[in-house]
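Cross-posting from the modeling subforum.

Setting up a comparison between two proteins and wanted a second pair of eyes on the formatting. Protein 1 (sequence, then structure tokens):
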Amino acid sequence: MNIRNVWRLCCVSVASLFWASCGSDTSTQAPVPEVNDLDSPESSSAEPASSEQSPTSSSSLESAPVSSESQPLSSAEEGSSSSIDEPGSSESLESSSSKESSSSSSEPLVLARDSSVTCSKIDDYESVCGSTTTSSKLSCMDLQEFLKADTAVSWMTFKKWEDDLEKCGAIEESVALYGVIYNPCNSYRTVTKLKCSDGLTYKWFKEEDGVVYTSEEEYNKAKGISSSSVAESSSSEAESSSSSLPKDYVQCSEDGFALFADILAEVQKEIYQRMSDALENPDSGLTDAQKEFYEDLLDRENKKLKGNLSPYYMDDYQYDIMYTSLKYDSKHWFNGYIAKTYTCVGGTLKTNEHYQEKYDNILKECLNIINQAAERLD
């Protein structure tokens, strides 16, 4: 009896499940013709019934994007974004175009030295050593001839020649980089220049109110800035002995042009004398190791230090000074020439102050190198 009841309940359960599944199939299959009717020409007759049955019919969905009340937040965002983005972009385009038009329509720059000459700025490539790709640079020999000539020139021009001669590149500063010879003078930088209507290219110095100046001297002259204080302190003899010269002009001649190695040779003679005196002085306080170190540095025959680049290179090797750079060994290195003497019209021969300053600095640097090496022997 119990088995029958269990069997009957199982049959009823299966039957109920079957009918329930059949009911769900009919409910899900009912909308299918409506979906298919969307693509058919007769869908218009079915649309009113479907719209009445369901508020989310195809007609309501189609009209939803058009309605501004259905999604007020999103529509407001879209409106605000459109009102911000589009005019903003147009304004930026207008501003950029206005800048371009203003720059393109702006009048050319006027050369200060000649108002009839108009110029435009260009980018040029200049060697880090000073030469340019579009204009030639005065050579070391040219600058020496100018400084020897005893010609009346402005003090600024005279100093410019001196500065250019000191860095004229007489020494080839090549260094080994991972087995490759690298010449720093082959590196270039971008500089601004002026291409003018007279067919010439000028250096760019300063621009004010559409007027361009090619040098500090030209600018100071136009602005009435006097450099008499500089000229007076540096060329008092020239001014006192040549009152007929224009203001801030000098008439001097330089000579005895020396390389870094030439000044070092003079420094070596001074160091030789000092070290010799220290070795002969019983009260110098030198240890035996230091005395031996000093003696190894001295070239007794020539009364100088051994090696032409000692004490930077402490050996007796004679380096080719035209191809050996001490750029990374000395803080006072220069690759050009410095005049040792000068004389101005009506004056006497004098030692160039810049030469003396360079000599003193190199001497101090060399003595420090030797003293530090001697101290390490203790």
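Protein 2 (same layout):
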Amino acid sequence: MSKPRMKERQLAQQSRAERVRTSIEAAVVCPLCPEVTAEVGLEALTKALGVEEYRRGWKTTKSVRERAERLTGDPGWRERALGWIDAFRHSHRHGPTWRQFGTEPSLWPDDTTGSVVINVLRELSRDGYLDGTKTPFGLRHTPPQGSQS
């Protein structure tokens, strides 16, 4: 790897580490999240900045992909879900975890599986609606370029 490329990668890692630290710190001091103690924050920080375990080859079925596409393709559901993330972030001053988002009963049909939630998060992220998916307590709604949402 060339020196400029190594420097670029190092700067990107430092920037990510700062985003992760800031996000976890906000969750630890959040009065609405007493379950996020300093110990929980340290554990999240260790996991987030440790060896990255990408699931590029995540196995999913056609039916899971189709269910995720139906949800993300429904503008009403998508806006309700993204609005929930915005409201959470506004009241807590940090984003929800994937688990908080994925288990919010007002957003999901009763039979929604974890695989569907993961695929929904991936699609929303890929389509430019979500950011912070690799940052604990960093999930945030980002309207796609040219969008009015």
